[in-house]
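[job 0412] stage=fold_complex status=start
inputs:
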Amino acid sequence: DGGITQSPKYLFRKEGQNVTLSCEQNLNHDAMYWYRQDPGQGLRLIYYSQIVNDFQKGDIAEGYSVSREKKESFPLTVTSAQKNPTAFYLCASSIEFRVPGNTIYFGEGSWLTVV
Amino acid sequence: SQQGEEDPQALSIQEGENATMNCSYKTSINNLQWYRQNSGRGLVHLILIRSNEREKHSGRLRVTLDTSKKSSSLLITASRAADTASYFCATDGFSGGYNKLIFGAGTRLAVHP
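[job 0412] stage=fold_complex status=done
writing structure:
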């Protein structure tokens, strides 16, 4: 089935560690996104990528890094510079980047907790 | 800053009743979309309404858009327990050269059997 797969579902990070969240899509979408969701809050955009080997900072990129070496993969690294990383992370994709009204398809999310 | 703001923050109703959620936004938009999120899951697209449309239906969902008031409403008719979820509006508009979707904080709907 086509879709977006995020892993792991639950991840625990120790202070000072970097961790990487995986996101894979088989929808053949050009655009991919990472959002952060805090309890009772909406989604905030961390990074987005409109095409392979390209990515741009979103609204809250500090303390995060991404790569887009393959069309289907857009991993997110939460670095030790992110001081408050505990949140629910959602990966998403859409067919094209610059088209208004694109439906965004979401993965099932990953919970990251600092221990 | 968030573009869309949903109201109410939480809504509790009985099965069979209608549920109405509202979304207000601040700047001009191209489209407004509604998404649903079950607890601890990803978001699922429900419906999109374009800025030149006033009303749209999809099954038990009815969405209205009033661009003069910069507001939208989502009506779920004859609600079911399975409709229990958070509902988010998302507005889009070109910003910084790309089509940016901005999500509100959502309305948490609880439908009791």
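[job 0412] summary: The mean pLDDT of chain A is 92.
[job 0412] exit 0
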